[in-house]
UniProtKB/TrEMBL annotation:
Listed name of the protein: Thioesterase
InterPro entries: FlK (IPR025540), FlK-like_dom (IPR054485), HotDog_dom_sf (IPR029069)
Residue spans crossing the bilayer: none
One Pfam assignment: FlK
Organism: Sulfobacillus acidophilus
Domain Fluoroacetyl-CoA-specific thioesterase-like: 17-119
Length: 154
């Protein structure tokens, strides 16, 4: 990681709540206000945007932990912002305080931690998981085909 990311360095992102961002569970709207998961997505984006200028060419970062409290609603059509403030670095962990605000005040706050990783290591790991997933899927399909063939011969 490049030097220069100092305590208190901050980045803010802003958006407007759309109907696609309201609270839904199981595909059904629960409340016509900003979903907690959507607020967290924007908190993560602020945290990511904060560290992007400091990543080395060979580095990336992944979300590791998030501890958030959602304390107030934001209506469709209202804007809100999320700010990430650099708190500390502990080895490969980058810890940021995050806060979300709308026109009425704070709507959420907490801590977002990212982990620095080598791009190649991350890409290799993803490829390995994809391969395992495809291989596992093929084994499941083969098992199903064998079971179906066995039931047809009875």
């Amino acid at each position: 990681m490049r030097s220069g990311l100092a305590d208190g360095t901050a980045t803010t992102v802003e958006t407007v709540v759309t109907v696609n961002m309201v609270a839904r569970l199981g595909g059904k709207q629960i409340h016509p206000v900003l979903a907690t998961a959507q607020m967290i997505e924007w908190m993560e984006w602020a945290g990511r945007k904060l560290i992007l200028p400091y990543l080395e060419e060979s580095e990336d970062a992944v979300g590791y932990a998030i501890d958030i409290v959602h304390v107030a609603p934001t209506l469709v059509g209202e804007s809100f912002s999320t700010t990430a403030v650099f708190r500390s670095r502990q080895g490969t962990r980058i810890i940021t305080d995050v806060v979300a605000r709308n026109c009425r005040g704070i709507i959420g706050h907490g801590v977002f931690t990212q982990v620095l990783v080598e791009k190649k290591t991350l890409a290799d790991r993803i490829l390995n998981i994809q391969h395992q997933s495809r291989t596992g899927l093929q084994h499941n399909l083969d098992d199903q085909t064998t079971k179906e063939a066995g039931s047809e011969s009875k």
